[in-house]
TrEMBL record:
Gene3D superfamilies per the UniProt record, alphabetical: P-loop containing nucleotide triphosphate hydrolases
FtsK domain boundaries: 260-443
Annotated Acidic residues bias: 536-577
GO molecular function list: ATP binding; DNA binding
PROSITE patterns: FTSK (PS50901)
Protein name: FtsK domain-containing protein
Residues holding ATP: 284-291
Keywords (A to Z) from UniProt: ATP-binding, Nucleotide-binding
Region (Disordered): 531-592
Organism superkingdom: Bacteria
C-alpha cells in the first residue's frame, strides 16, 4: 500500500497492484479518523433523549406504565440475548463487552422510562457511566485496530514502541486492561512506562490515565491499564467505621481506589499469611489531606476492641484532635512533651517485647489482648521530623517496635535524607503518599516500581486533597499504582462513631501508661484509663502552659541524639511494681456529668466576656481536670463546638485556637454587650 497527500493535505491510501481498481481512502481527515468511534458516542448521546421521550409517552399514564415496564424489561432481556447470539463470531472479548453494554443500556433505559431520566442517580449514571462505557469502547477499538494513522502503523508504532504487541485485553466500564508482549531482548518494560504519557496523549486522555506494570515473572511482558475518567475527582462519602468492635488485625479502611474498591491498611503482622507488622510513613505537601486521612484512620483504630492509640502532635494537636472531644484517647501535644515521650519509647518497647516473650509470643497476636489484656499499640507522630530529629532514634524505634506489638506512623510534609535517612525508610514497611510538590518527594518513599509504573502524586499537589497512593504489607502490589482518595467526612461524623464505641475500646495497659508516663485521661469509660496509680508522677513533666515557646524553639534546634538504653530518662522508678489493676479515675464526689460540665464551661465563657475579654482560648480554663473532670482536649473540643454560636473563631496563638465571644441572644456575648 502506498500513500500520498492531497492538495488539502489529507493523506489518502491507495489500493496497490493486484487489489483491483485503485481507490482512495481519506484516512487522515479528522472526520475519517473519528468515524470509527462515532457509533458509541452517538449511542451514548441518543440514549438519554430517547428514554426521556419514552418516559413522557409511556410512564405518565398510570394505566400504561406497568405494561411499559414489563414490556421494556422483556425487550431488554431479549436484546441482550440477541447481542450475545449475534456476536458469537466475534472475539470473545468483543462478544462479552457488547453483551454487557446491551444489558447495561437496556436496564438503564427501562428504569429511566419508568422513573424518569432526570432523576438522581439515573442522570448521573448516564452522564458518567455512559460516557465511561463509550470511552472504553473507543479505547478498545483503537487498540484493536492498531490506530488510525499510517496504514500498518498502530498505537505502539505511533508512540515509538514498534514491536510491542497486545496479546489480550479486558474491558470494563471506565477501565481497559491490556496484556503486552515486548520484543524480547530489544525493549524493556521501563521503555513502555516512559512512553505512558505519549500513549495517554495519543488516546486524548490526561496524564496518569495510563499505567504500565511489569509482569514479575517475565520481564518481556507487562499489563497496561487505561482509566479514561478520573472518578476520584469527587470524594466518596464516608461509610462509617469498617469494623466497629473488630480487631486491629482487621484492615483499616481509609478510602476508595479509583475502581471504588476499599483502601485497606494492615498494621499488625499475621503469621498465617506471612505478613509482617509494619510502620507507615505518611507524606504529602501542606493541604494535601494528611490530617483528614489521619482522622479517618484514628477513628478506625478507636472503634476496635484490642488496640490503643497514642497521638503525638508537636504543633497543632488541639486543632487536629479537637474532634475527639472528651472521648477517651491519649494525645501528647507540644514539642517538648512529644520529645520526652519519644525518649521513653525505647524502654516501652523493651518492656512490651519482654512481656510478650514471657507469655510465649515472638510478636503481638490477638491472644496477647484477649488472654493477657495487652492491646496492640499505634503511636502516630505528626510532623515526625520535629520530634524524631536524629537518625539513630528513628532507626532504633522502627527496628524494634514491631516485635513489641507496636506500629509507628510518621507523618511529614516533605521527606529528605536529612529528616528521613535511608536506614529509617528501609524500616518503614508502608507508605501513604498524598499529593506532593515534586515527584522526587514521592520517589523518596514510594518504591521505584510504583513510580515507574506511572504513579504521579505530584499531579495532585494539594489541589486534590485526600488523593493518595498506598504501599504496605497485605496490599496487593497491583494496588500500589492505583490512585485512591480518602472519604469525605466531618469531625462530627467521626466523633459520633468514636463515641459509639466508647465501651468497646480496651483499657490502656499499665505498661504503656507507665513507660509513656501518661496521665489518666478524663473519660466516661472506666476501662480506658491510663494506669498511673502507684507510680510517682515525673517531677519535670510540664503542662503545655508551662512551656516557653522560645525554649521550645531552642529545643527544636538543638537536636538531641538518642540516648543509650541506660541513659534513657524515663523518670520512672524501675523498682516500682507495675500495677495489676487499672485504677479508677480519682474525682472527689464523682466528676460532673457532661451537661453540667458544659454548663460550667459556658458560664466561664460568660464570665470572661463580662470581664471584657475579647479573646478566649483553652488556656483560660486552668485545671480542667479538677474543675470539669475532663482534660484540655475536651475543653478544646467544646470550644470548637461553640464556634458560630457562643464564640467566633478568630485564629490561633500558634498553639491553641483563639475565639471571640459573640454577642448573640442570651449568651455570653450578649451579656458582654450589655
Ligand atoms: N478526601 C477528601 N475529600 C474532600 N476534602 C478533603 C479530603 N481530604 C482532605 N480534604 C480537605 O482538604 C483540606 C486540607 O486537608 P488537611 O488539613 O488534612 O491537609 P494536610 O495535608 O494535613 O495539611 P497540613 O500539612 O498543612 O496540615 C481540608 O480542608 C480537608 O477537609
Amino acid at each position: 500500500m502506498a500513500g500520498k497527500n492531497t492538495q488539502r493535505g489529507d493523506h489518502l491510501s491507495v489500493a496497490g497492484p493486484g487489489q483491483g481498481f485503485g481507490y482512495y481512502t481519506p484516512d487522515k481527515h479528522w472526520a475519517s479518523r473519528l468515524a470509527p468511534y462515532a457509533p458509541e458516542w452517538a449511542g451514548y448521546a441518543a440514549v438519554w433523549p430517547v428514554t426521556w421521550g419514552l418516559h413522557e409517552w409511556l410512564a405518565t399514564d398510570p394505566g400504561v406504565a406497568p405494561w411499559a415496564s414489563a414490556g421494556m424489561s422483556l425487550l431488554g432481556v431479549g436484546l441482550t440475548a440477541v447481542t450475545w447470539q449475534c456476536a458469537r463470531a466475534r472475539a470473545a472479548m468483543t462478544r462479552k463487552f457488547a453483551t454487557a453494554t446491551s444489558g447495561i443500556t437496556a436496564a438503564w433505559m427501562t428504569t429511566g422510562t419508568i422513573a424518569g431520566p432526570t432523576e438522581t442517580p439515573l442522570l448521573e449514571l448516564w452522564a458518567l457511566g455512559g460516557a465511561g462505557v463509550a470511552v472504553s469502547w473507543s479505547i478498545y477499538k483503537a487498540l484493536r485496530r492498531g490506530g488510525d494513522g499510517e496504514p500498518g502503523e498502530g498505537l505502539f508504532e505511533q508512540v515509538q514502541l514498534a514491536g510491542v504487541k497486545q496479546t489480550g485485553s479486558q474491558v470494563e466500564p471506565n477501565r481497559v486492561t491490556s496484556q503486552l508482549q515486548l520484543p524480547p531482548g530489544q525493549m524493556e518494560v521501563s521503555d513502555v512506562q516512559k512512553a505512558s504519557g505519549r500513549i495517554a496523549g495519543w488516546l486524548g486522555l490526561g496524564k496518569g490515565a495510563v499505567r504500565v506494570n511489569e509482569d514479575p515473572d517475565n520481564s518481556s511482558q507487562a499489563t497496561m491499564t487505561i482509566v479514561p475518567q478520573d472518578v476520584l475527582k469527587h470524594p466518596t462519602a464516608w461509610p462509617g467505621p469498617s469494623a466497629p468492635g473488630g480487631s486491629i488485625t482487621d484492615p483499616l479502611v481509609v478510602g476508595v481506589y479509583e475502581d471504588t474498591e476499599p483502601v485497606q491498611i494492615y498494621l499488625p503482622g499475621d503469621k498465617d499469611t506471612g505478613r509482617n507488622a509494619t510502620h507507615y510513613a505518611v507524606i504529602g505537601m501542606n493541604g494535601s489531606g494528611k490530617t483528614h486521612g489521619a482522622k479517618e484512620s484514628w477513628t478506625e483504630i478507636l472503634t476496635r476492641r484490642d488496640v490503643g492509640l497514642v497521638l503525638m502532635d508537636p504543633s497543632k494537636g488541639e486543632q487536629s484532635v479537637g474532634f475527639l472531644g472528651d472521648t477517651p484517647y491519649t494525645v501528647i501535644t507540644g514539642d517538648k512533651q512529644c520529645k520526652k515521650a519519644v525518649k521513653r519509647l525505647p524502654q516501652l518497647i523493651t518492656e512490651r517485647a519482654s512481656q510478650l516473650g514471657e507469655w510465649g509470643y515472638d510478636q503481638w497476636v490477638p491472644e496477647a489482648y484477649s488472654e493477657h489484656g495487652l492491646p496492640y499499640l499505634v503511636i502516630w507522630i505528626e510532623e515526625a521530623p520535629r520530634v524524631l530529629s536524629d537518625a539513630k532514634t528513628m532507626t532504633r524505634l522502627a527496628q524494634e517496635a514491631r516485635s513489641a506489638g507496636m506500629s509507628l506512623v510518621f507523618s511529614l510534609q516533605k521527606p529528605s535524607f536529612r529528616n528521613m535517612p535511608t536506614d529509617v525508610r528501609s524500616q518503614l514497611g508502608g507508605t501513604w503518599c498524598f499529593g506532593v510538590a515534586d515527584l522526587d518527594d514521592a520517589a523518596f518513599v514510594l518504591s521505584e516500581d510504583t513510580i515507574e509504573s506511572g504513579a504521579r502524586p505530584d499531579r495532585w499537589k494539594n489541589r486534590r486533597p485526600g488523593c493518595h497512593y498506598v504501599e504496605g504489607p497485605g496490599i496487593s502490589e497491583e494496588r500500589y499504582t492505583t490512585p485512591a482518595r480518602t472519604h469525605l467526612h466531618s469531625d462530627a461524623q467521626l466523633r459520633a462513631a468514636v463515641d459509639e464505641c466508647a465501651d468497646i475500646r480496651p483499657a490502656m495497659h499499665p505498661i504503656d501508661a507507665r513507660y509513656l508516663d501518661l496521665t489518666a485521661p478524663a473519660t466516661d469509660n472506666p476501662t480506658m484509663v491510663a494506669g498511673n496509680e502507684g507510680i510517682e508522677p515525673t517531677e519535670d513533666f510540664e503542662s503545655l502552659d508551662d512551656i516557653d515557646p522560645d525554649e521550645a524553639a531552642d529545643f527544636d534546634d538543638d537536636l538531641v541524639p538518642l540516648p543509650d538504653d541506660e541513659d534513657v530518662d524515663t523518670d520512672v522508678d524501675d523498682d516500682q511494681p507495675v500495677p495489676e489493676q487499672v485504677p479508677a479515675l480519682d474525682f472527689p464526689g464523682g466528676r460532673p456529668p457532661r451537661e453540667e460540665a458544659v454548663a460550667m464551661l459556658r458560664e466561664r465563657i460568660t464570665q470572661l466576656a463580662t470581664e471584657g475579654r475579647t479573646e478566649i482560648s483553652v488556656k483560660d480554663f486552668p485545671d480542667p481536670e479538677e474543675t470539669y473532670g475532663r482534660g484540655r482536649s475536651w475543653i478544646s473540643g467544646e470550644l470548637a463546638k461553640l464556634d458560630g454560636t457562643l464564640l467566633q473563631r478568630v485564629g490561633t496563638d500558634g498553639r491553641a485556637a483563639l475565639y471571640r465571644p459573640r454577642a448573640t441572644g442570651t449568651d455570653a456575648g450578649a451579656q458582654h454587650a450589655a
